[in-house]
Amino acid sequence: MGPGPSDVPPRVLEALSRPTIGHLDPVFLQILDETQGMLRQVFGTKNALTLPMSATGSAGMETCFVNLVEPDDEVLICRHGVFGGRMAEVARRCRANVTLVDAPWGEALDPDDVAKAAKGRSFKVLAVVHAETSTGVLQDLAPFRTIADSCGALLVVDAVTSLGGVPVELDRMGIDAAYSGTQKCLSCPPGLSPVSFSERARRVLSTRKTPVQSWYLDLNLIGQYFGGERVYHHTAPVNMIFALHEALRAILEEGLEHRYARHRQQAEALWQGLDALGLELPVARGVRLPPLTLVRVPMGVDERAVRARLLREHDLEIGGGLGDFKGKAWRIGLMGASATTRHVELCLAALEEALR
Length: 356
Ligand SMILES: *Cc1c(COP(=O)(O)O)cnc(C)c1O
What we know:
By secondary structure, this protein is of the alpha/beta class. It has helices at about 10-15, 25-45, 55-70, 80-95, 110-120, 145-150, 170-175, 200-205, 220-225, 240-255, 255-275, 305-315, 340-355; strands at about 50-55, 75-80, 95-100, 125-130, 130, 135-140, 155-160, 175-180, 195, 290-295, 320, 330-335. The chain contains 13 helices and twelve strands. The two termini are about 20 Å apart. Bound molecules: pyridoxal-5'-phosphate (PLP).
């Protein structure tokens, strides 16, 4: 119950352990096609270029920036936690000129601040984190398409902790590129990063003046394996794709609406229980992220000792604070298969015992 990886259902672990077959085997290629189709459903998109990159969520982040950004491009990054900061670092390494808009730790970005930064300027990319796992804040994305249009930017969204846990609707929100990771609300082991690029993002990609600086993450090349031609680029991580295929099947069997409601219900129960223990939740209710809850460590409590005790006595992992919250907060995840009544009850009882 930390900030990921979440618990992996047995059926997904079983899929992971199936015999390894070739990455050009027709059976595998069908599973790959189905995986892409299911990813489109979960992302809420018809984007043809929707596929799992062969690395963790951070590689999905790099994929978006290295493919869309060229040296000297202007990039506007909205930062309300660690992962917005990581996007800025990745964009700078693409030699972009980065402009930052910040929100205080534990708060959502104010769209007016973003609009002000975009006003009268032109940007190649506007990027924002949907679910900030470092603070437990869910960013409302509704105003961002209009702001991106006002400065001519592609809208890039980090959906690592939101995908499969809260609604992510790329087409409805006008998002041009998004990335996620398998080990958060998709409840699959870490190792793949689903990404999706709109037609507009693909046009930007295909009209670059310079080659993508990363050969491994170049979507022009990878698209030729995932498209009809099946041109060898790198060996697909066959067993991880089996696992993701099964994880997505489980998600769609549950139904996206049910799944989002389950995350919200379990989070409400957790918040109520933490409140009853007298613990403070620094993030305002209206922007609280169901899959990840930030809890303030009470005065005089050794937060590391509590986490060590939870692990030792209760087999339970929760996360420590990051950035401004380092040493001052815990982060409790309710992601995918970990968002159950059993998890919530175990966590509340274990915390109560450890604090006592
Ligand atoms: C976990 C996470 C990442 C990085 O993913 P890795 O799989 O650790 O590389 C990026 N963004 C957010 C919001 C995350 O929660």
